[in-house]
Structures are given as structure tokens and as C-alpha cells.
């Protein structure tokens, strides 16, 4: 089974692209969705122990957690130490499950793939991109987003040009959904063709 890492900077259209892979029948593991699940399950007691008062009705309240974590490098490191191993274990179980089921291709949707050293966990990387003006427009349209927040998020991410340089595949969402979908279909065809022992057709 080939494992494709899907990544891209904020506002590039990664979630939409991940859905295209899923709609095409490729199993997709979504790191963000996993974190939401963990915040309502396994991670809850761990987060509450590290950051008292952040759990409400048995679920980690992201707003309360953000108040304790944002702008605090030490607190951010602490939450990452709790969450990253749990997300990784969940992804490993997902891959094992689909490998056993005979899947030829699986996608790990990892927002900070290059930033967290995730490159060594995947066989190939697809980077979702868009022109800077489209990216800015999309991000600033999000509720509660400001120029300052956007700049702060970008500063923590590997620049888009560098991500594209490191990518095996590039999916441009700035030219419309149809072109992005065509790129996704081509990547699926290429990677399932590359499977060892599989016919080329």
C-alpha cells in the first residue's frame, strides 16, 4: 500500500482536496478531525491535568485551551507533546487497518507535515497550493480571523514555495475545483499504477 501525505498551508484548500480523495474511494485519515475526536475522548483527562479548567462537559473546550496556550511557547510545546503521539497512533492504526483490507493507496492529511517531520512517515507528498491573493482572501473570510493572526500562522508554517519544491505532486486549487479534481484523479492513477506487482494498466 502506498501512503500519500497531503499537506498545504492555511487557506490553500487542503480539506476540500482531501474530500476529493475520499469521494474517489481512497481512505483518508484527517489529523484535524482526529484531534477533535481525541479532545472528546482519550486526550481529555491528559489535557485537563496539564491545563486545569479547559475541559467543559467532558470535552476539551478549544477556546479555553487557546487562552492558556496561544502566545506561550512552553504551553504550546506541552499540548503538542500530549496530542501528537495520540494522533500518530491513531494514524498508524488507520494504516494497519486499510493495509490489512488490501487498500492500494491511503492518504494521511497532515496540515504540518513538513513542520513536524512527517515526511518520513509517507511514501509520497502532495502539496495543495493557490496564489497568495486567493489564499489571503479565503483566510481573512474566516470568522474571527485578522491580518495579525494570519501573519502569525504563516510565520509558523514552511513557506508555500518551499513546500512545492519538496512535493512529489502539486494540486493547485486556485484554478477552480474541476482542475484540482483532475489533479487528484491523475495522482490516484499514477500511484496505484506504481504498486509493485500490480499490472500497469
TrEMBL record:
Transmembrane as UniProt keyword: no
Official protein name in the record: Dephospho-CoA kinase
Primary role: Catalyzes the phosphorylation of the 3'-hydroxyl group of dephosphocoenzyme A to form coenzyme A.
GO BP terms in the entry: coenzyme A biosynthetic process
Catalytic activity: 3'-dephospho-CoA + ATP = ADP + CoA + H(+)
PANTHER family in the record: BIFUNCTIONAL COENZYME A SYNTHASE-RELATED, DEPHOSPHO-COA KINASE-RELATED
HAMAP family: Dephospho_CoA_kinase
One GO cellular component, as annotated: cytoplasm
Positions bound to ATP: 11-16
Enzyme class per UniProt: transferase
Gene Ontology terms, MF aspect: ATP binding; dephospho-CoA kinase activity
Alphabetic keyword roster: ATP-binding, Coenzyme A biosynthesis, Cytoplasm, Kinase, Nucleotide-binding, Transferase
EC number: 2.7.1.24
Pathway involvement of the protein, from the record: Cofactor biosynthesis; coenzyme A biosynthesis; CoA from (R)-pantothenate: step 5/5
Gene: coaE
Annotated compartments: Cytoplasm
Predominant cellular place of this UniProt entry's protein: cytoplasm
Top-level taxon of the source organism: Bacteria
Entry similarity comment: Belongs to the CoaE family.
NCBIfam families noted in UniProt: dephospho-CoA kinase (TIGR00152)
